[in-house]
């Protein structure tokens, strides 16, 4: 039980920390693209860790008590996690592309090859 | 509507089937877990919306047929009301299958239990009927409004 | 009797009314038939007399709906102008009026207890 | 213990109200729809916290996917 | 209310706090893509929070809601992105 | 601590919606207002059914031996949500059609029918 | 002028709603719950469904659900009828 | 036909994962559940097989590729992701950025490969895939810390393309 | 268990089933849609008449959904009902008869009228759904179920009003306005339902009526319910949607819309009389309704005089005639707490008001149908452009005269009978009100003289040379309505004694209403 608690604390701590970073980055960064960096990477990573905590919790409780509902908890959380991992970066890509096409240019940009390419 | 980028389309290919099976899971387990005909139908309808947005209205015509949707909409509702009528020996909407022992007729354990699919009487059947209606209704709404948006917007000057 | 409608302070029967109309109508027709017999068809007496002016062409004599009751609306201008002004056809006003009336009724119901 | 739950309730409600206020005050339509979506998302979370998972699923499916879709169609059609 | 309730509910509350931060970006965001990024962030946070709360209440069936949200918020994002791709207008 | 705050939130929702209906001059904004009122009323119904320390009214794999929240408002809200989306879809379609013929969404100009 | 009247009406309306919110029964403590207790106790044995909400939606209040599905059908037919001539 | 069967199996797998609780089949599912699952999966396969297999490429049927995929996910990808977050944390705290959008040509051809690469890039340090050239599969990357104006592929995404080539091509 | 116990649900379910079948049938045969609609509605009409006979002889009837027996309202010794039920007393069946007749005639009329449209199957499907919504609103005994059917009726109405929206902008505009106001009203009704539920944990009308306490929250619920339902019925000053919606809808739909707004009126009476009854402050609420009536009568008719669009003019008359019903029933409500006055003139006033509902549906429907016939043949609704149509459309002219005479209250048509009841009884309540009502009646006559003159009289106009008499099915519908009007006009006592008086008594006697559900009280 003690090990489980420690693992939970670590995982939840990492998850919350990165989620926090993501939100702060969303506030601090100057333009859409950099904000997307913060939002996508950090929140996905954080959410993976909070979900991992739940998964670990579910499996270990199932091991201890043998109650099938904890296995269901872990399995469903895995499914939710997979959904999150698949959809998040794709959504970020869609937003970035749409932002660039709608005329929002990156600030302080050293180089912008996409603007020169003019894809349509 | 034009199609979106290749990355989005590839992800859509996977997610589409996943959303639909998940929606069916919600519909079929309506009497055990949260969900039911409406929720599952809405989820599946969203899957059609996803296909529409990532493939554009021209390319998605291969996969989404409005005729079939409107057919299934009427069919789902008729199934639902026929289920209502079939209780008419006693009263309209009488749950004549519950606790009868046959299909969906198992007696539920009273209290907390892990859930048995084979219970609920006509409720699972009604879930399926309503789910069929709702998913095709949302399909029709999304397709029609996409068509209408092309129709009502101002013509570009190009 | 059939068709007798009690109204609390009297009664009303359409059958009696119809019979009465028939009787009075036949009397009127009878009196009319006994009237002036110097009238002759297809003479000057047949034509309408419009202050000596020539009769207008029938095609143009139809009065269009805008002009009927012109005097009535003109006389009640003070009443009609604000009334028509209220009917703006603006959807915001529609919902606004509902809220106004709701508030009035809420106050009345609330105050009266 | 239950005070934590209450704080969660309160902050969910507050975020929701702010988001719907934004949906009203934004001048352009697209930002208001985004704000409406946030409000509906938080509404779903609030249903979830009020122990109504059935309704939360319905609100999530309809508020996130379909309402957004038909609003976007509408503003596309009225551009 | 078992001993794990607190462990899971407190991170959930913290995630809600981060939602406030994202909401500020939603208010400030000078352009529409900024606001969509905020929406996306709130989506992810809500999904994570829903999983945590579901674990805290020991209600297995609640996780389904999180799955639905994780899947469908993506659709909303795509719709807005699609609209923005249409051109610089609005 | 929380008191009747959820009800107040409901009222604020409805108030915002009514405000939008009364003072905003864009047809799609009006549709947003209707959505907001719907959200408020749905929240109201669910809030009425809440019971502190209870669990959801579903027996499948629930934590045993607890009271449950009231199920009827949830059923009602489910109905009202679907009705809401149907209403919204119809409102938006009609608004699109208005735009096709009038070329504008301003309520001050969408008033050929008056008097 | 009209805007002022509407504004005042709106404020009064809002305050009435606030009054009703405050007078509502306390949050989280329903005073009377006879009907719902009946549902919670008997739904499982009468309909055999674990989910009480579903058993209310489809059994006890099935007619509402029929009406709701009909509303959706009506809206769909309305939308299709509105855009009926539009060809792609 | 083969795509129908594969879609059916995939959806069946998903359904089984979702419904695993208690029952007579291996202690996980009841018989009725499985029958329902087969029925629903048939419907899904009927609806979704055309979408899933548009290009009619069956390269991913090789189980070896899936093994490599899992190794990739757990090994280099996760490590890169962790690094990415440290990086983001650093930039969030210090606020040092030097962004730009650069073009890289990856040499990947299949849709799945390019998608995997783009998503990996988005989740790994300092990079975000913005756009894609549909003709020759060049990716446009928003790079948060531009070190060279003419970056090679290695600068951006380490050796991911090799991994992905082994997985998806 | 004989089928006769299931008549209440069959009345609703058969049109509903037909509505779902119509789009499917249309794929097979294009012409079957209209015939199926007419068939379903005729079955529904026959069943309604059978049910009316049963109810008027036996007494109120209940139909419980999903229970072990259709009349089992209280399962296993509970004090409150838990299932949805239809509860049909004399007032409900009175409204149900109106709905059945009007929608059946509307369907018959549509058979020819819809030749100008495409997508006819959707039209018929929506018409059936509108009918179902009205039946549901009138028959249901459950307050949330009432909300659902209110939404069905309003959504179907909106879709039908904006049916021509693809070609013209105005129908879409009218539909939008109606949709917004009806959404507001539906949401307010839902809020009131929430208030009731929060206090009493009940959703049944009768059970609520037996426990209602008229507390602070009940007052707010009443204050939300009265205006929104009055608005749906078209009371001034919330009537502005009425002329828009009525004038832009296709003619048979307008006729049914009149009946739909009267269904809301019925709901208002149901709330005030059956739900609250004596517990509310009857004088205040009665005067509120009387003032609604006065304003509606007067403003409606004066606005009608200046109109030049024929259907818009009639729509304003619809507002004005609704005022009579408000006036009659309002007087009855104002003296509800006073048994002496109630017996002396209150019941008569209510009889007048309720009887007027039926008369109004009939003659207003006839007038709208004639207007639709004019539009069908001439293609215009502008009175300025019409003239001399009596030369071409003789039957339509006769029907118009009958309708106009009835609405103006000329004896021996039915309008006179109900108006006379209202005048004489209201005079004993307050003479001024009665005089106002008479003035309004005169103004009504004046404005119909205007319509008659500008549309039908006058020389033959060259642009209308091709105009022919209307098709047979349209004439049939108008003829049936005219026969009903004349019959009602000649024998009003039959109707008042057998239909209207039981309806009024079922409204006034609350105990009977609750007793039907809750058992011997």
Walk me through what this model shows.
The structure holds nine protein chains of nine kinds. With about 160 residues, chain B is mostly helical. Chain B has one domain. Chain B contains four helices and no strands. In chain B, helix 1 (about 5-30) runs antiparallel to helix 2 and helix 3 (about 65-85) runs antiparallel to helix 4. The relative contact order of chain B is 0.19. The model of chain B has no long low-confidence stretch (mean pLDDT about 80). Chain C has one domain (about 5-55, about 85-110). Chain F has three helices and no strands. In chain H, about 40% of the residues are buried. The radius of gyration of chain H is 21 Å and the shape is elongated. In chain H, a hairpin with a 5-residue loop joins strand 2 and strand 3. A three-stranded antiparallel β-sheet of chain H has the order 1-3-2. Chain H has six helices and three strands. The model of chain H has no long low-confidence stretch (mean pLDDT about 80). Classes of the chains: A mainly alpha (about 120), B mainly alpha (about 160), C mainly alpha (about 110), D mainly alpha (about 80), E mainly alpha (about 90), F mainly alpha (about 120), G mainly alpha (about 90), H mainly alpha (about 170), I mainly alpha (about 525).
Write the layout of secondary structure elements.
The structure holds 9 protein chains of 9 kinds.
Chain E: H1 4-28, H2 32-57, H3 63-85
Chain F: H1 5-23, H2 27-48, H3 72-102
Helix pairs in contact in F: 1-2, 2-3
Chain I: H1 7-28, H2 32-58, E1 61-64, E2 85-88, H3 90-113, H4 120-139, H5 143-161, H6 169-200, H7 205-211, H8 216-233, H9 241-248, H10 251-276, H11 282-305, H12 310-334, H13 339-378, H14 394-408, H15 414-429, H16 431-456, H17 472-490, H18 492-508, H19 510-518
Antiparallel strand pairs in I: 1-2
Question: What's the quick description here?
Answer:
The complex is a heterononamer. Chain D is an all-alpha fold and 79 residues long.
N-to-C order of helices and strands of chain A: HHHH
Describe the largest sheet of chain A: none
- Kindly state the percentage of residues in helix of chain D: over 70%
Give the biggest sheet of chain D.
none
Number of spatially distinct domains of chain A: 1
Number of helices of chain D: 3
Helix content, binned percent of chain A: over 70%
Classified by CATH, the class of chain A is Mainly Alpha
- N-to-C CA distance of chain A: 58 Å
Dominant shape of chain D: flat
**Average pLDDT metric of chain D:** 86
Average pLDDT over all residues of chain A: 81
Shape of chain A: elongated
Radius of gyration of chain A (CA) equals 19 Å
Number of helices of chain A: 4
Give the oligomeric state of the chains in this entry, treating copies of one chain as homo and distinct chains as hetero. Answer: heterononamer
Rg of chain D: 14 Å
- What structural class results from the helix and strand content of chain A? mainly alpha
Biggest interface goes to: C-I, 51 and 65 residues
Content-based structural category of chain D: mainly alpha
Number of individual domains of chain D: 1
Domain MrpA C-terminal/MbhE (chain G): 21-85
Keywords (chain G): Membrane, Transmembrane, Transmembrane helix
Transmembrane segments (chain G): 69-86
InterPro entries (chain G): CPA3_Na-H_Antiporter_A (IPR050616), MrpA_C/MbhE (IPR046806)
């Amino acid at each position: 039980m003690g090990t489980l608690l420690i693992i939970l604390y670590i995982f939840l701590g990492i998850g919350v920390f990165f989620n926090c970073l993501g939100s702060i980055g969303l506030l601090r960064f100057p333009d859409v693209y950099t904000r997307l960096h913060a939002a996508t990477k950090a929140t996905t990573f954080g959410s993976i860790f909070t979900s991992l905590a739940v998964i670990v919790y579910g499996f270990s409780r199932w091991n201890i008590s043998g109650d099938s509902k904890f296995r269901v908890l872990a399995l469903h959380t895995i499914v939710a996690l997979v959904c999150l991992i698949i959809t998040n970066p794709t959504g970020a890509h869609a937003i970035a592309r749409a932002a660039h096409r709608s005329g929002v240019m990156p600030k302080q940009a050293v180089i912008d090859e996409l603007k020169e390419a003019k894809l349509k | 509507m034009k199609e979106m980028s290749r990355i989005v389309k590839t992800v859509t290919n996977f997610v589409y089937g996943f959303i639909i099976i998940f929606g069916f899971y919600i519909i079929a387990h309506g009497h055990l877990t949260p969900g039911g005909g409406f929720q599952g139908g809405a989820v599946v309808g969203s899957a059609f919306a996803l296909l529409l947005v990532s493939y554009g209205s021209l390319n998605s015509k291969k996969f989404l047929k409005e005729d079939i949707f409107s057919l299934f909409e009427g069919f789902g509702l008729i199934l639902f009301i026929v289920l209502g009528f079939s209780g008419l020996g006693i009263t309209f909407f009488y749950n004549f299958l519950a606790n009868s022992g046959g299909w969906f007729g198992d007696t539920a354990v009273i209290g907390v239990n892990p859930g048995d699919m084979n219970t609920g009487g006509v409720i699972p059947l009604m879930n399926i009927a309503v789910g069929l209606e709702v998913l095709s209704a949302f399909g029709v709404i999304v397709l029609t409004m996409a068509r209408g948006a092309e129709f009502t917007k101002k013509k570009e000057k190009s | 009797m059939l068709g007798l409608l009690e109204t609390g302070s009297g009664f009303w029967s359409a059958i009696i009314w119809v019979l009465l109309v028939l009787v009075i109508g036949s009397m009127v027709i009878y009196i009319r038939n006994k009237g002036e017999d110097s009238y002759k068809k297809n003479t000057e007496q047949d034509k309408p007399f419009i202050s000596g002016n020539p009769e207008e062409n029938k095609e143009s004599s139809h009065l269009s709906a805008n002009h009927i009751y012109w005097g009535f609306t003109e006389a009640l201008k003070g009443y009609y102008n604000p009334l028509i002004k209220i009917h703006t056809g603006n959807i915001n006003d529609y919902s606004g009026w509902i809220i106004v009336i709701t508030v009035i009724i809420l106050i009345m119901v609330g105050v009266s207890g | 213990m239950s005070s934590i739950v209450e704080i969660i309730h309160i902050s969910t409600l507050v975020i929701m109200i702010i988001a719907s206020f934004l949906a009203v005050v934004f001048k352009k339509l697209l930002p208001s729809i985004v704000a409406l979506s946030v409000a509906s998302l938080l509404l779903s979370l609030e249903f979830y916290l009020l122990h109504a998972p059935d309704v939360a699923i319905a609100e999530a499916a309809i508020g996130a996917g379909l309402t957004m879709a038909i609003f976007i169609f509408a503003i596309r059609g009225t551009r | 209310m078992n001993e794990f309730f607190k462990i899971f509910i407190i991170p959930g509350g913290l995630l809600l706090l981060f939602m406030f931060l994202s909401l500020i970006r939603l208010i400030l965001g000078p352009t529409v893509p900024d606001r969509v990024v905020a929406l996306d962030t709130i989506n992810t946070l809500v999904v994570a929070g829903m999983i945590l709360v579901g674990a805290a209440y020991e209600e297995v069936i609640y996780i389904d809601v999180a799955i639905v949200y994780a899947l469908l918020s993506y659709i909303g994002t795509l719709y807005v992105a699609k609209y923005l791709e249409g051109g610089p207008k609005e | 601590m929380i008191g009747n705050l959820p009800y107040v939130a409901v009222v604020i929702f409805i108030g915002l919606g009514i405000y939008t209906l009364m003072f905003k001059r864009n047809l799609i904004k009006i549709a947003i207002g209707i959505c907001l009122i719907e959200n408020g009323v749905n929240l109201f119904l669910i809030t009425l059914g809440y019971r502190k320390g209870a669990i959801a009214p579903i027996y499948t794999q629930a934590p045993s031996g607890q009271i449950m929240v009231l199920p009827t408002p949830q059923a009602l809200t489910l109905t009202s949500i679907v009705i809401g989306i149907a209403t919204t879809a119809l409102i938006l379609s009609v608004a699109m059609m208005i735009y096709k013929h009038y070329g504008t969404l301003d309520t001050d100009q969408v008033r050929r029918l008056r008097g | 002028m009209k805007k002022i009247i509407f504004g005042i009406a709106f404020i009064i309306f809002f305050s009435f709603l606030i009054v009703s919110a405050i007078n509502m029964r306390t949050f989280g403590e329903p005073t009377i719950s006879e009907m719902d207790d009946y549902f919670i106790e008997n739904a499982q044995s009468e309909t055999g469904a674990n989910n009480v909400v579903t058993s209310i939606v489809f059994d006890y209040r099935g007619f509402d659900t029929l009406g709701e599905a009909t509303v959706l059908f009506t809206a769909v037919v309305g939308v299709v009828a509105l855009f009926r001539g539009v060809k792609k | 036909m083969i795509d129908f069967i594969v879609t059916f199996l995939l959806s069946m797998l998903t359904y089984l994962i979702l419904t695993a609780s208690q029952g007579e089949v291996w202690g996980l599912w009841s018989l009725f559940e499985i029958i329902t699952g087969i029925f629903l999966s048939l419907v899904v396969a009927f609806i979704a097989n055309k979408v899933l297999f548009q290009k009619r490429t069956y390269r991913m049927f090789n189980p070896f590729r899936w093994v490599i995929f899992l190794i990739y996910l757990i090994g280099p990808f996760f490590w890169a992701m962790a690094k990415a977050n440290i990086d983001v944390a650093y930039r969030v705290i210090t606020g040092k950025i030097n962004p730009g959008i650069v073009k890289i040509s990856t040499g990947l051809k299949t849709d799945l490969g390019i998608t995997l690469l783009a998503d990996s890039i988005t989740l790994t340090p300092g990079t975000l895939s913005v756009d894609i050239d549909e003709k020759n599969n060049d990716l446009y990357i928003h790079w948060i810390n531009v070190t060279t104006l003419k970056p090679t592929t290695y600068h951006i995404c380490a050796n991911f393309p090799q991994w992905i080539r082994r997985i998806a091509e | 268990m004989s089928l006769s116990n299931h008549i209440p649900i069959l009345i609703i379910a058969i049109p509903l089933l037909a509505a779902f079948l119509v789009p499917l049938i249309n794929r097979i045969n294009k012409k079957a849609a209209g015939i199926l609609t007419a068939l379903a509605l005729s079955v529904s009409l026959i069943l309604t008449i059978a049910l009316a006979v049963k109810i008027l002889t036996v007494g109120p009837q209940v139909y419980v959904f999903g229970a072990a027996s259709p009349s089992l309202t209280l399962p296993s010794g509970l004090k409150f009902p838990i299932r949805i039920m239809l509860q049909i007393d004399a007032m409900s069946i009175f409204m149900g008869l109106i709905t059945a007749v009007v929608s059946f005639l509307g369907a018959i009329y549509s058979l020819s009228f819809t030749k100008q449209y495409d997508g006819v199957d959707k039209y018929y499907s929506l018409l059936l759904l509108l009918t179902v919504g009205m039946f549901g609103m009138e028959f249901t005994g459950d307050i949330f179920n009432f909300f659902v059917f209110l939404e069905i009726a309003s959504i179907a109405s909106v879709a039908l009003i904006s049916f021509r929206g693809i070609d013209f902008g105005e129908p879409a505009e009218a539909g939008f306005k109606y949709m917004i106001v009806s959404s507001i009203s539906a949401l307010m009704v839902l809020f009131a339902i929430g208030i009731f539920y929060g206090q009493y944990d009940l959703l049944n009308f009768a059970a609520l009526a037996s426990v209602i306490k008229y507390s602070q929250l009940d007052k707010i619920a009443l204050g939300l319910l009265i205006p929104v339902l009055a608005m749906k019925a078209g009371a001034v000053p919330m009537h502005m949607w009425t002329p828009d919606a009525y004038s832009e809808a296709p003619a048979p739909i307008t006729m049914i819309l009149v009946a739909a707004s009267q269904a809301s009126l019925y709901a208002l009476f149901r709330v005030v009389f059956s739900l609250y009854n004596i517990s509310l402050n009857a004088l205040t609420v009665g005067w509120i309704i009387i003032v609604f009536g006065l304003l509606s009568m007067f403003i409606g008719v004066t606005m009608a005089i200046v109109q030049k669009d024929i259907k818009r003019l009639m729509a304003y008359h619809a507002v004005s005639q609704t005022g009579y019903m408000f006036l009659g029933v309002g007087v009855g409500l104002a003296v509800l707490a006073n048994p002496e006055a109630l017996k002396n003139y209150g019941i008569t006033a209510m009889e007048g008001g309720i009887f007027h509902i039926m008369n109004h549906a009939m003659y207003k429907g006839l007038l709208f149908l004639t207007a639709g016939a004019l539009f069908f043949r001439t293609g215009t609704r502008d009175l300025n452009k019409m003239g001399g149509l009596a030369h071409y459309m003789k039957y339509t002219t006769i029907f118009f005269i009958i309708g106009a005479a009835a609405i103006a209250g000329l004896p021996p048509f039915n309008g006179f009978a109900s108006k006379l009841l209202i005048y004489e009884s209201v005079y004993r309540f307050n003479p001024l009100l009665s005089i106002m009502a008479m003035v309004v009646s005169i103004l009504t006559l004046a404005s119909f003289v205007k319509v008659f003159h500008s549309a039908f009289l006058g020389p033959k106009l060259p642009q209308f040379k091709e105009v022919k008499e209307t098709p047979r099915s349209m004439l049939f519908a108008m003829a049936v309505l005219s026969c009903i009007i004349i019959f009602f006009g000649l024998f009003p006592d039959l109707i008042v004694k057998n239909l209207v008086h039981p309806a009024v008594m079922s409204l006034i006697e609350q105990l009977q209403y609750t007793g039907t559900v809750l058992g011997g009280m």
